[in-house]
Amino acid sequence: MSDLREAPMAERPDHVPSDLVVDFDFYNLPGSDEDVQSAYAAIQTTHPDIFWTPRNGGHWVATRAEDILVMQKDHQRFSYRHVTLPPMPEETPVQIPLELDPPEHAHYRRPLVQALQPGAVAKLEQGVHDVCVETIEALVPRGECEFVEDFAKVLPITVFLRMVNLPLEDKDYLLPIAEASVRGRDAQTRFRSMQDMGAYLYKWVEERRHNPGDDLLSQVVNTQVRGERISVAEATSYAGLILFGGLDTVAGMLSFFAKFLATHDEHRRQVVARLDDEVFLKSAIEELIRRHGMANTARVVTHDFEYKGLSFKKGERLLPPNLLVGMDDRVNDDPATVDFARKGGTHAAFGNGAHACPGAILARRELRIFLREWLSRIPDFHIKPRTKPVLATGMVNGVTKLELAWN
């Protein structure tokens, strides 16, 4: 829960019915300090399917899977042009390729998708395994750790910085910038983080454009669109976006997994007993992902139209939280309960349609390696006594502190 000074409330537009106005602030959500996803689900079950909030500049909120999936896929009505709330300053550069709509989006996205194909990810697997084992082995004799700093901000970030061939020692400088970008609750904080990331990346972008290698950064900053290489400004924006994603999202999911297993002994023992069962492990990971959705990306209404009896006006902002698909009791029975035997659990943790996360394959691979290597070495662990996990909401939900202990 945030204690920052309250931002001014937006006035209700005339076309928004007064009974659809809800005081909803996704940066300051009641109950989110205990369980982020359940706090969202409480909004889902007690409020209209689609409502309007005066918080964070004033915007619509969709709460049900049926509508969220439409808004993820229908770029003709729901554009990705501005994905953050509150709205960023007008001079903010476009986040490439995230804030581009099809067909333009596909031209920029292609090199990222190619770099994260299953075959390419398979080549990274041994490196992920080695970093994971080395990190865990160093923690085992300690009997405790602060999971976020000691593991979640080590494994995926080390792997990612190797993919883009940037100095590993720079992570301590980059991580606070990424944190400000995804959880800074005001536009000025996020804008400064983008400027800071751009300033850091500029020399590397120039260097890889003049002397490209076979790393991911070299591929994206030399992207060709319609036969011409993208500009330095576009390349810097592109590079910044993949850094923000690579430095935070998998770390957040690892931490949600660890928090759940530390507080649910029976589930943890189920996974420990079946670490070599590939089919079970795959379904367990998918169920944990469904239950612990993270990302929130906003949309912009492209033109005036009616949707389910509501009037949407051009330029309005809308928030369709990805995690609410997995927590929707209309598509998942008893969604708050993690059931490793669940069949066909529906979620949108990695998005859908043209903007589905290209890093999903790598993320799932890292999560699988984590479960196998951690639970084979530390099968019994719990929240350290007299401590409490610290959770955060924002454009990306996360765990910012998680103290674990084991015998």
From TrEMBL:
Family matches, as InterPro entries: Cyt_P450 (IPR001128), Cyt_P450_B (IPR002397), Cyt_P450_CS (IPR017972), Cyt_P450_sf (IPR036396)
Family: Belongs to the cytochrome P450 family.
Oxidoreductase found in the keyword field: yes
UniProt source species: Sphingobium cyanobacteriorum
Pfam families tied to this protein: p450 (PF00067)
Taxonomic classification: Bacteria, Pseudomonadati, Pseudomonadota, Alphaproteobacteria, Sphingomonadales
Name of the protein in question: Cytochrome P450
Keywords carried by this UniProt record: Heme, Iron, Metal-binding, Monooxygenase, Oxidoreductase
SUPFAM superfamilies: Cytochrome P450 (SSF48264)
